[in-house]
Amino acid sequence: NDVTFASIYNNQGTINVNTGGSLTVNGPTQIGYSGTVGAMNISAGTVNLNGDFIIGTSGTVTCSNSPTINITGNWTNNKTFTAASSQVNFTGTTAQTIGGGATTTFNNLKINNAAGISLGINTNVSNILDLTSGLITTGAFTLTSSSTSNTSIINYNASSYVNGKLARNFT
Question: Which candidate in 71, 74, 135, 143 could, as Cys together with 97 as Cys, close a disulfide (CB 3.0–4.6 Å)?
Fold first, then answer.
């Protein structure tokens, strides 16, 4: 079923998002709040994060199957994100950031934000990088596309591309 919250600060518990359901958070979401252990398991369905998403230093977010995560705020990973076959869509209307103290590896990453995305840490995409709208500005960091498929980076054009360091695997 579908559930909506104003914000979530998870400590010492587990949030499970299962097949067929959706979780919408209209504010910040922090997993592993204030240094306490917290977890989120997303086995399928859709998670709509209409605010910042923070994986704390004691937090873990684990995807299984093929869930979709839509985010309009910033993504901060300070511990563990396991992508599985997930799709993460950055859909904000103001500039967004991917950062934190731990590198995030996304499975499928879609940028659909004309205001763009900035990297605050090295970031990996293991399958599809979709540049529908907006720039990814890497600054001092590197965006790595680890798929060797020649169709692993899609929808790039003169106004949607990686502005900075892009590393790509080839066979």
Answer: 74
